[in-house]
Amino acid sequence: MNSITMQCKIEVLRIFRNPYFVFWSLLMPIVFYFIFTNIVNADVPDVELWQAHYLMSMTAFSVMGSAIMTFGIRMVQERTQGWSSFMKITPLPAWAYFTAKMFGQTVMHLFSVILIFIAGYLINGVSLTFTQWFFSGLWILVASLPFLAIGTLVGSMKKVETASGVSNILYLALAILGGMWFPIYIFPTFLQDMAEWLPSYHFGNGAWEIIRGNAPSIKSVLILGGYLIGFMVISALVRRNEEAN
Amino acid sequence: MTNPVVEVQHVTRNFGKTTAVNNVSFSIEKGSTVAILGPNGAGKTTMVSMMLGLIEPSAGHIQLFRHHPKHISVREKIGAMLQDVSVVDKLKVHEVIALFRSYYPSPLSMEELIALTGLEKNDLNKWADKLSGGQKRRVGFALALTGNPDLVFFDEPTVGLDITARRLFWEKVNALKEKGKTIIFTTHYLQEADDVAERIILFNRGEIIADGHPNAIKQQLAIRNVSFQTNDAKRAIQQLQTLPIVSKCYQKDDRIYAVTEETDTVLASLFKFDLHAKDIAIEQGRLEEVFEHLTKPNGEAEINEQHNDAM
């Protein structure tokens, strides 16, 4: 068990030492939050609700980004640099290697959630009940699983450049179309209809419901669950295909 | 074949239509040092990757310590230094080593690793992905030995190292040999194989073309020749060429060379033909020449020999 603890510790260390993490996962969402709640869009009917809503959007945006990009791109890097093969000749089981990665990722998500929530409190004095803080944070952690599955798909790409390009586009498209930057009610109807089927919309929507005092809808849970299973199956197929070659 | 650590039986590996390794069999005894020698593209790295369980053979079987190479008990007993492995980023050298130490049941201490590999104390606090070539190699060497393995693989360990670093590396490997480790390394430097290994498995185009002690390989494969001086070179060449045991006869500078496997018989013939031979010498080709001779395509080998002759 010692090796797994050590592996987890090392993964966490590596993530926190990465300046991209600090920039993309913390700085950017917080700056966005500041701009869209204080400079632009300040004339919303219910300011307090908007500030809490947009805090959830930005937290979800941050976690979704690290799940898709950090996780996937690191996998590609480690493979292209021969490190993944090298790990295979050590006694560390493959599942432990993967588990440690997931653990590191979860710690990173937890850290992002806490920090961005604190930023929301400090910038706009967002005030929620303890239950709302707790469950919205928990929702964002757990419901990020489908995006980690997308991350493993990105991780099966051959080149870092491809992985980084594809995941960037995917990330931004999912964020914008899912209503994380602007609420979807300002979109044309066909985009609103489309958002209803995107995992990013439901990821955000769960948290948006929680801060309004509701539970995430069954539809959100089902759609996110469906995406999770779908991406895991594709990921498994891709890996089997690779091993056959 | 008392205590084989590695057993390779009729192993073939295809990549698409190309055959990287073709029906290869050998076994390696505990405590021996074996060089897998061959030119680039001979299938050496593929062979090592299969022994490490990183690539499955298309046909045939490989066992390490009587288990599949992927077996956990095997992984605890092996270490490897592979080509083109960069250590992951954002970790210091001592952290990577600490991580590796946690993988094995009885790892070596940091002090032992420093002594065994020539890793320098001030390397330990550097970022592992930002080292110079030589430092990287030392870290790779240390990682290969961290688990105190019984069997160590080095895939082209000295490529890109300068002469001093190379000499130091082989000194450390010799120390490992004395500890009774089984060592398998690939190289395309014949000199290294000859100096370090007690057995050479010579690969060419995916097949084993020779296997044995470096001296035995020289004996078995060396190009031997009888050379001498004479006043009547033309007649000497004509007459020697009539002998079936002489594969080639030529003149270089003021000497006549008869290439043969049976030098004694050629000597006898020299006197029988009454060629007035002076300053007779018997030469055995260096292993370097044998190697080139064996691993070059036929036409090229011929050209190469002539080229050597001209020098």
From TrEMBL, chain A:
Location in the cell: Membrane
A GO cellular component annotation in the UniProt record: ATP-binding cassette (ABC) transporter complex
One Pfam family, short name: ABC2_membrane_3
Superkingdom as given in the UniProt entry: Bacteria
Domain ABC-2 type transporter transmembrane intervals: 51-237
Principal location: membrane
Keyword hit for Membrane: yes
Record-annotated membrane-spanning stretches: 21-40, 52-73, 94-121, 133-157, 169-191, 218-238
Membrane topology, record value: Multi-pass membrane protein
Keywords of this entry: Membrane, Transmembrane, Transmembrane helix
UniProt-recorded Gene Ontology molecular function terms: ABC-type transporter activity
Signal peptide region: none
PANTHER family reported in the protein's UniProt record: ABC-TYPE MULTIDRUG TRANSPORT SYSTEM, PERMEASE COMPONENT, NODULATION PROTEIN J
Protein name: ABC transporter permease
Source species of the chain: Oceanobacillus profundus
Automatic annotation (TrEMBL), chain B:
GO MF terms held by the record: ATP binding; ATP hydrolysis activity
Cleavable signal peptide: none
Coiled-coil region: none
The ABC transporter domain, residue ranges: 6-230
Record keywords: ATP-binding, Nucleotide-binding, Transport
UniProt cross-references to CDD domains, sorted A to Z: ABC_DR_subfamily_A
Protein name, as recorded: ABC transporter ATP-binding protein
Top-rank taxon, per record: Bacteria
